[in-house]
Design goal:
Number of strands: 13
Strand order of the largest sheet: 5-4-1-8-9-10-11-12-13
Helix content: 25-40%
Structural class: alpha/beta
CATH superfamily: Ribokinase
CATH architecture: 3-Layer(aba) Sandwich
CATH class: Alpha Beta
Radius of gyration: 18 Å
Strand content: 15-25%
Order of helices and strands: EEEHEHEEEHEHEHEHHEEEHHH
Largest sheet: 9 strands, mixed
Number of domains: 1
Length: about 290
C-alpha cells in the first residue's frame, strides 16, 4: 500500500474569458496524485452554492476522498479570474474572502494526521492568508509528517515574514524561477539558480528543493546533488496547473522509491502534458505521461 498524503488548501474555479474550469493549486495536486494511484485526501472548504457542488461532483467522479472537505454557510466557493493575455504566463486575481480561507481544525483531520499511514502533508502559501485557515495549518504542521511546501506566491497574498515561517516548516520545497529569485534576493544578490537554491537549503534546513523553469525544464537539489532536466516541447494550451501536476508527479515518484533523476524526469513529463491541456485538472491517460518524457 502506498503512503498516505493529505493536501491542505484551496479548491476553486479558474474563471477564464470563455469558460470556468476547476482548479486551485492544492486541489490540482490532489487530483493528479489520485490519478497516479496514490492514497490522497483533500482538506479544503467550499460554499453552499452551485460552484461548490460542481467541485464536489468532479472530485467524487474521480474517486478522490472528500471526507475532509468542509462546507461553509456564509462564504462562497473560491474564484480566480485568470488573465490569459499570455498563455505561457497567466496572471491571477484571487478573490478574497472565499470558503477555503475558513478551513477549521476538526477532530477528523487531527486523527488522520496522527495516523501512521499518513506520511506526507502538502500545503501552500495561499491557504493561510486568513487567520482561520492559518490557525488550522499551524496545528497541522505540529504533527510528525513529511511537510511538502508548494510556495505559490501571489501578490498581495503573502509577506516576507509569513514566507519565512513556511520555509522553516517544510521538508520538501517546490517553487518556480521567479519565486526562487524573489526569495533569494531577500538575503543576497541573485547570481544564479544553484547558488540561490543552496542558500535556501542552508538557511532553512531544506534538503530537497525543486525548481520549475517553464519551457526550460526543471532543477532538483537533493542530498546535496543538483539534477537538471531540459524542457519538453509541447503545444501549450495554458500553463494553469502545470506546476501542480509536476509536484504530484515528483511526490508519486519519491513514494515509489525512484532515483532522484527518475523523479525529475517523470515530474517534468507530467507538467508538460498538463500544459498541453486547458486548465489545471484535465482528464488524461496516465500512459500519456511517459510518452512526453521519451
Amino acid at each position: 500500500m502506498s503512503d498516505g498524503i493529505i493536501c491542505f488548501g484551496e479548491m476553486l474555479w479558474d474563471i477564464l474569458p470563455e469558460k470556468e474550469l476547476p482548479g486551485g493549486a492544492v486541489m490540482n495536486v490532489a487530483y493528479h496524485l489520485q490519478k497516479l494511484g496514490e492514497q490522497v485526501s483533500l482538506v479544503s472548504r467550499v460554499g453552499r452554492d452551485a460552484r461548490g457542488q460542481g467541485l464536489m461532483d468532479m472530485l467524487h467522479r474521480f474517486g478522490l476522498d472528500t471526507s475532509l472537505v468542509q462546507t461553509d454557510k456564509e462564504h462562497e466557493t473560491g474564484k480566480v479570474y485568470a488573465d490569459m493575455t499570455n498563455p505561457h504566463e497567466v496572471h491571477y486575481d484571487i478573490v478574497y474572502p472565499a470558503a477555503w480561507d475558513f478551513i477549521e481544525w476538526e477532530p477528523l483531520l487531527a486523527e488522520r494526521l496522527k495516523d501512521k499511514a499518513t506520511r506526507y502533508f502538502v500545503f501552500g502559501s495561499l491557504c493561510s492568508r486568513d487567520k482561520v485557515s492559518l490557525h488550522t495549518l499551524q496545528q497541522a504542521l505540529k504533527e510528525n509528517v513529511i511537510k511538502v511546501l508548494d510556495i505559490n506566491l501571489r501578490e498581495p497574498h503573502y509577506t516576507r515574514a509569513h514566507v519565512e515561517w513556511l520555509l522553516e516548516e517544510c521538508d520538501i520545497l517546490k517553487l518556480n524561477n521567479n519565486e526562487l529569485e524573489l526569495i533569494s534576493r531577500w538575503y543576497h544578490p541573485y547570481v544564479d539558480k544553484e547558488q540561490a537554491v543552496r542558500l535556501l537549503s542552508d538557511r532553512f534546513g531544506i534538503n530537497t528543493i525543486v525548481v520549475t523553469m517553464g519551457g526550460d525544464g526543471a532543477m532538483l537539489f537533493m542530498e546535496d546533488v543538483f539534477y537538471v532536466e531540459p524542457g519538453i516541447t509541447v503545444k501549450v494550451a495554458d500553463t494553469i496547473g502545470s506546476g501542480d501536476a509536476f509536484l504530484a508527479g515528483f511526490l508519486h515518484s519519491i513514494i515509489r522509491g525512484k532515483a532522484a533523476r527518475e523523479c525529475l524526469v517523470f515530474a517534468n513529463a507530467l507538467g508538460a502534458l498538463v500544459a498541453s491541456y486547458a486548465g489545471g485538472a484535465p482528464d488524461y491517460k496516465v500512459t500519456d505521461i511517459l510518452k512526453k518524457g521519451d
